[in-house]
Write a structure and sequence with these properties.
The complex is a heterodimer of chains A (148) and B (128). Chain A is built from five helices and three strands. Chain A is mainly alpha-helical and 148 residues long. Chain A is extended. The two termini of chain A are 16 Å apart. The radius of gyration of chain B is 17 Å and the shape is elongated. Chain B contains three helices and two strands. Chain B has 128 residues and is mainly alpha-helical. In chain B, helix 2 crosses helix 3. The chains are: A mainly alpha (148), B mainly alpha (128). At the A-B interface, helix 1, strand 1, helix 2, strand 2 and helix 3 of A face helix 1, strand 1, helix 2, strand 2 and helix 3 of B.
């Protein structure tokens, strides 16, 4: 499946929902307008990414981080986004922390279990958990491998 | 038309608004996304804080050859910013519809907004 920028759209249902929630009741949106907004949103992502990446490169970092995105917003003249974005980021980080702690606890419990005599069971569980752990591991590194 | 189906959980696609504790790594919906009501399994981190699927946002970011790595937070922030952008452009376009005494937002309202508003200048010439 081709993954050129032109082919990547954001889900129509979600875009529609965001639009509807932003507009007063009784307002409709034509299909063409919706499509255009969705396209515009994709272009926005590409542009914001490119902008943010410039900041990362200037700072000689290989990993694009949240601060770079904030700087990009400013550069793109979307200062009005900064405050809500900061708040969202705080909430997000808190959520991440909660997840990490929860999975740490899970892991500890898991270790306790397998050291008892439920060997067969824990092996099965471990397989299930393994996927989970891998993901948690990724999260702890807090970096996504956006390799090309 | 097979989906890209990134089976490897190592990708750690964070998406799925709201399905918090699902220990699943696969994404059933990595396709064109036409009307597919999006959010995919594989969740874990979203808490309904971003409406747009982070996996899709990340895929878009990856399309830039200069981008090597991106933190999860940055993907999330871009998703959130995109949401704010959609709200903003919809509202700004609505002004033009109202001027035309219409209750339906049309493509030309978007075009007008893009032409008139500085922040949308980057969109000029990019839409079909």
């Amino acid at each position: 499946m081709a993954e050129r920028p032109e082919d990547l759209n954001l889900p129509n249902a979600v875009i529609t929902r965001i639009i509807k929630e932003a507009l007063p009741d009784g307002v409709n949106v034509s299909k063409e307008a919706r499509r255009a907004i969705s396209q515009a949103a994709s272009v926005f992502v590409l542009y914001a990414t490119s902008c943010a990446n410039n900041f990362a490169m200037k700072a000689k970092r290989k990993t694009l981080n949240a601060g770079d995105v904030m700087s990009a917003m400013e550069e793109m003249e979307f200062e009005r986004f900064l405050q809500p974005l900061r708040e969202a980021l705080e909430a997000y980080k808190k959520g991440q922390k909660g997840k990490k702690e929860a999975s740490e606890q899970k892991r500890k419990d898991k270790e306790k279990k397998s050291s008892t005599d439920e060997n067969d069971k824990s092996r099965d569980e471990e397989e299930d958990e393994h996927m989970d752990d891998e993901q948690e591991g990724e999260n702890e590194g807090e970096e996504e491998d956006v390799e090309n | 038309m097979a989906a890209t189906a990134p089976a490897a959980p190592a990708e750690s696609e964070l998406d799925r608004s709201g399905a918090e504790d699902e220990p699943r790594g696969t994404e059933p919906e990595e396709d064109g996304g036409n009307g597919q009501a999006g959010p995919t399994a594989g969740a874990q981190q979203q808490h309904r804080l971003a409406k747009l699927p982070l996996s899709r946002i990340k895929a878009l970011m990856k399309a830039d050859p200069d981008v090597s790595l991106a933190s999860q937070e940055s993907v999330f922030i871009i998703a959130k910013a995109t949401e704010l952008f959609v709200e903003m452009i919809a509202k700004d376009a609505l002004v033009y519809a109202q001027q035309g005494k219409r209750k339906t937002l049309q493509r030309k309202d978007l075009d007008n907004a893009i032409e008139a508003i500085d922040e949308f200048a980057f969109l000029e010439g990019t839409l079909d």
